[in-house]
Amino acid sequence: MLRPKIPTMPTPTDFTAPPTAAVVEPTTVVPNVTTPPAVPTTPAPFRPVVQLTPGTALALVGGGTAVVLVLGAVLVSLLLAVAVTGASVAVCAVVLRSLLASDAKRR
């Protein structure tokens, strides 16, 4: 089967020592000053409060009315299309029936 080739780590070519010019200075340890625990605060509400002004309420009512009217017009037009299609199929059925009946009487 196919086996992936795992790359090997390259070996260093020469040994490098840290520069001798680096001087390590000791640091002083400062004791931690204890601070009093913070007073728990009440969390802010997760959702901002939405305030409706008369203008925004009127816009919402107008938008809702427009949506209802558009959906109503679409549904009525679909119902009308189904009714017209049904009526045309019924007319075609009556015409075909009369043609077949008149053809059967002639024989």
Automatic annotation (TrEMBL):
<keyword id="KW-0812">Transmembrane</keyword>
<keyword id="KW-0472">Membrane</keyword>
<keyword id="KW-1133">Transmembrane helix</keyword>
<protein>
    <submittedName>
        <fullName>SpdD-like protein</fullName>
    </submittedName>
</protein>
<feature type="transmembrane region" description="Helical">
    <location>
        <begin position="82"/>
        <end position="100"/>
    </location>
</feature>
<feature type="transmembrane region" description="Helical">
    <location>
        <begin position="57"/>
        <end position="76"/>
    </location>
</feature>
